[in-house]
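Q: How do we represent a protein-ligand complex in a form that can be generated token by token?
A: Start from the inputs.
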Amino acid sequence: MTYLPKPKLHHPSLQKNAVGFTRRDYEGAISTLCAGCGHDSISAAIIQACWELDVEPHRVAKISGIGCSSKTPTYFLSASHGFNAVHGRMPSVLTGANLANRELLYLGISGDGDSASIGIGQFVHAIRRGVDMLYIVENNGVYGLTKGQFSATADQGSKSKKGATNTDAPVDMVGMALQLGASFVARSFSGDKTQLVPILKAAMTHKGASFVDVLSPCVAFNNHPGSTKSYDYVREHNHALCRMDFISPRAEITVDYPPGEVREVRQHDGSVLRLRKLPESHDTGDRVAAMNYLHACQARGEIVTGLLYVDPEAPDLHEHLQTVEVPFNTLGERELCPGSAVLAEINAALS
Amino acid sequence: MTPLAATNDFVVKFANINGSGSASANELFAKCILRMGVPVSPRNIFPSNIQGLPTWYEVRVSEAGWLGRRGGYDLLVAMNPQTWDEDLKGLASGGYLFYDNSKPLPKFKFRDDVTTIGVPLTDIANRTWDDPRQRQLFKNIMYLGALSVLLGIERDVIVQLIGEQYRGKQALLEPNVHGLDLGREYASQHLQPIGLKIERRDNVGDRIFVDGNSAAALGMVYGGATVCAWYPITPSSSLAEAFQKYCAKLRVDKTTGKHNYAIVQAEDEIASIGIVTGAGWNGARAFTATSGPGISLMNEFIGLAYFAEIPVTLIDVQRGGPSTGMPTRTQQSDVMFCAHASHGDTNHVLLFPEDPHECFEFAAEALDLADRLQTPVFMLSDLDIGMNHRLCKPFEWDDARGYDRGKVLSAEQLEAGVPFGRYRDVDGDGIPYRTYPGTHPVRGSFFTRGTSKNADAKYSEKGEDYIENMQRLKRKLETAKKLLPQPVLHRAPHAAKDGAVYFGSTSPSMAEAIAKLDAGGMHIDALRVRGYPFADSVREFIDRHEQVFVVEQNRDAQLRALLIEQFEVDPARLVPILHYDGTPITARFIASAIGERMGSAEVTALRGDKVA
Ligand SMILES: Cc1ncc(C[n+]2csc(CCOP(=O)(O)OP(=O)(O)O)c2C)c(N)n1
Ligand code: SF4
Ligand SMILES: [Mg+2]
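Then emit the structure tokens for the protein with thiamine diphosphate bound:
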């Protein structure tokens, strides 16, 4: 891996958003990833999405595992607290953090090695529980940080840079997320900002477990002919499901689409996802249809991207556990300690 | 054969079949004796995987108040035919065998040197009830009735306890009292009095009778834990379950019905500790309860929490080895392992409760210590304390006591310009300041990672930064020594040249052993350590004595190894006294092991199995 210093992301406008921050305020430290690494484009899309959504940077918690992908939280939102946890265990740390304070926006950043191999159990269970988070897998089909071993998302028959062929069947995390009950499931491509940014915005406003698989080519170890996670391969085989616009609750809805081609999904916070259907597209409210569609595309050798499924009403973990509205980390003795009089009763019952 | 005779000082062993409903009758037996003012200490013995699902319940009755396991038993209530032979073999000579004689047994099934007491429990039950389930169930209360006549347990006491147990459940109350009386009637009419007796005393006082896992769970409620993540494992599961039970009573908002707690039964122990770490990082008090195998899985996270300085509270209810290894037997064998859990130069804070009272106290204390020290804190309990009811001092809570949330900078402090660098040693005690995520729009954010950082939490792989951080962590451990529960000294009645160090569940047997040794003219001072790293006074204690016996329940003398490591004392002066067969250590064992090494002629007397 090279450590080419990259200039801090520049943006022509220092225009402020509704909460008074410029796009710059959402940036992080200078990336140390390889020039051209897909992960950097995802960081840029996260920055863009948070700025456009008027998220206050300090109200975000960035949590990751280990890998090149998991390093990226350092490269965006430096005003947010971040946590580089251990390999494959981002989901549990995020779950605990979320339980402690339900008011922050939780970004879980992981890689395909981090989530589809060592951490597959935690991925599965965090999704099952409906933890309110945006779970992003920056999926390059390899272990970038440990220099190019196959990951579990590598396609059968794909070739490593050193020429080895992967013979194991791939794990499809999107299919798994659908099956496990994620209430927002999408796939995108790091090279397609117009698609990725609205998806991230929609996922950030979604309450519940949002899962976004972002194909993110590794220029150092997985961008060669024979790889199915290279820029060229993904561009050629990308089957975009639909184009999506994200309309925040504050924005006036002015754009008009011919009825019949547009499907609107209103989320719990009032934001609207406006899906412009492509001819073959499907109903994003139908989990079974989404799974079928995914498999049909897979069988044709297409990589389906876009929003596959959303359930705007799904309850999250806090609802399941019936926790109080205020963050746990603000509760003190008064709320939590039953006191000595109650203890005297307990003692009496035990004697 | 002279039948044993003893008042308020003997051991009863119940041999039952799991699921036969015996547990509540047996517990009732223990409680009746307590209500008569006589101390008892019961122990459940339940192998995890043996045919016939046997369980045993051993009740030591001790007017003198000795609560450790005595060893041996004087009265056997043999209700499990599958374990009959083994059970009978262990009965003390001169003891009493109580059994259901509805079906005749061949003569060779009995022993000549014990008194045999038969009661046709099945016959009476079959005559009285039609429902097979009831016939089975009420046999238990019937044997309790018969035993109460034999031993002199007052009927009123039993009836009152049954009433408390089935308050509002008339349908259960009446047949239970009826079953009790059937047993009593039969015993009064057909059985001879025996040599073992319960007589009223006033030796229980205001003590409570509770298991350590429930006590620890309640301590977590009082200490302000809001997040509990766990994965089922014997012998710790009942702790998380008790937390659930207490929270449902004590932590639900009366008006909204909302919960001031979250309990996650995680997919494994790695996720449990991950959830606790995430919650601790984000400012909630969180804990996990597990046993050795779970700690094994948690190691990587424990190291991360140590180096990233995140408050984490763990309760390890210790048991024997991994996999199928003795999961239902007690040990103190995770001491070394927890002290240095995870890779890298780690060193963790440990607390050693002696009984449920301290389980409660230390659980709440652990939450304070974890926040104050920003580090993992382990409470090392074990199966013996955790899963058995034990007589102990009532729980105490001072309403003036606030939670010590440690060094956390508030939004106001950040706004006022208080300088912040996550890992700077501002106060010289090794403990840095932290901020909760989301506190201030532009100040106080930092990035949490392992060791590759400088004092301002910026990424750094520089050797100087690493060393500075590691030295500070060491200073923090020095600070910890002063904050932990201090050791408890028991001074011998006469000047003693030898001492003993012990901890945790060894405590009641140690107290009894010291009394035995004293009675034999062998005096030792004893120090019960309650926390690790050890206080300086532990070193002083060792220095003051010629030899120090280190009494513990593991093979490798783990506490002793930590003493040698921390104090660099001459290992020859620390004499290991080790008990590790999975049964709780006894006073007989300790007294004879120490007596032998003190070169006393009284040793044989100490070892002697004077039963009853
Ligand atoms: C317990 C543990 N095992 C192994 C590693 C080594 N390791 C670091 S990153 C990594 C793979 C990362 O792959 P991925 O999540 O796909 O991230 P990428 O670098 O491709 O973005 C491995 C195996 C580790 N850090 N911890
Ligand atoms: S994922 Fe690949 S391209 Fe990206 S930083 Fe790692 S090695 Fe470089
Ligand atoms: Mg990868």
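Confidence is low (pLDDT under 50) at residues 607-612 of chain B. The first strand of chain B starts at residue 6 and ends at 7.
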